[in-house]
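Dear Dr. L.,

I hope this message finds you well. Following up on our conversation about the binding site, I have prepared a predicted three-dimensional model of the protein together with pyridoxal-5'-phosphate. For your records, I am including the exact sequence and ligand specification that went into the calculation, followed by the structure tokens. Please feel free to forward this to your student if that is useful.
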Amino acid sequence: MTDKLSKKNLSWTELGFNYIRTDFRYSAIYENGEWNQGSLIEDDQILIHEGAPTLHYAQQCFEGMKALTTASGDVCLFRPSLNWERMNSTAPRLLMPAVPRELFLGAIEETVRANYPWIPPYGSGAALYVRPMLIGVGENLGLKPAEKYEFRVFVSPVGPYYKDSGMAMISLAVSEFDRAAPNGTGKYKAGANYAGGLLATLNAQGIGANEALYLDSANNKFIDEAGSANIVVFTKDEKFITPSSDAILPSITRRSIMELAEIELNLMTEERPIDLRSEFQNFSEMAACGTAAVLAPVGKIWFDEKWHAMPGNENSDGSVMKKLYELLVGIQRGEIEDKYGWLHSINLGL
Ligand SMILES: Cc1ncc(COP(=O)(O)O)c(C=O)c1O
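The resulting structure of the complex is given below.
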């Protein structure tokens, strides 16, 4: 086995969701109205001007996806074009330049390929997390957009976001803080949305929950989303529902799960406002979904000063969430036929 092919000696099954430095990252610069070609680099530091708009005015956005080794040994991304579309819906909202598709996907593919030894093997339950980011750099002081931008992609091997591997049961606590205003930036993957959530997460953890759950900020009534995941609910009258809200991040995982629920499980699906307090007694199962969370069933929710247990999640083996988890992860791992064409195989050049 050549060096290029040999894997790092990591305890793949023990990985958490933490940064591990890999060998290469990709960097491209936008200046004078155009992108340069960009290249792989080894330096994990970014040297930027102290006045850079990304530092002061949070002029930045990012994406997150995973590359997985499939059963046949391919390394695949999951629907990366949707991440590209989402970054390019966020960028103009923050007056940042669009990232061309070839640059976005090319940079990701090159970075994954160059870090082959860091890609977790099939069956380990781990993945290579891919973090594309777009930041406003260059000299600046006043509140105005940057004139120069860096698009960077780095990767890190990761294990499950919530501590147990497989389908972890989590708990959520309704936050006293709002995450996003109705016409704000909640539907964009802007770093600015997350800083305000750090305290909400800390408070949620303080009462024993894994994460904060946000209700809509106009009425404090309808479910928006969790700190880093969207919400799906299976009701006692057998509907598979998810919140419609202009203030939540349009999750690629959620979109896929909704499609699987409708097509593979023949469930009646609905995207509509969900009133937590008045509809809770009709909930059978609830889960948080996202690239990092995958599909994590919610065992209980804290609201109105007490815990509320989710009835249907007690027997998680026969649950709808378990079936959906197995379908989604089965496709991602190449164990179930990818009839929707969701996997994007990376040419490893080996
Ligand atoms: C706030 C928020 N909601 C939802 C998601 C899930 O989105 P996706 O499924 O595209 O990863 C994420 C994570 O990316 C997130 O940060």
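In brief: Helices lie at 53-56, 80-93, 101-114, 192-195, 197-206, 252-263, 276-279, 320-332.

With kind regards,
A. P.
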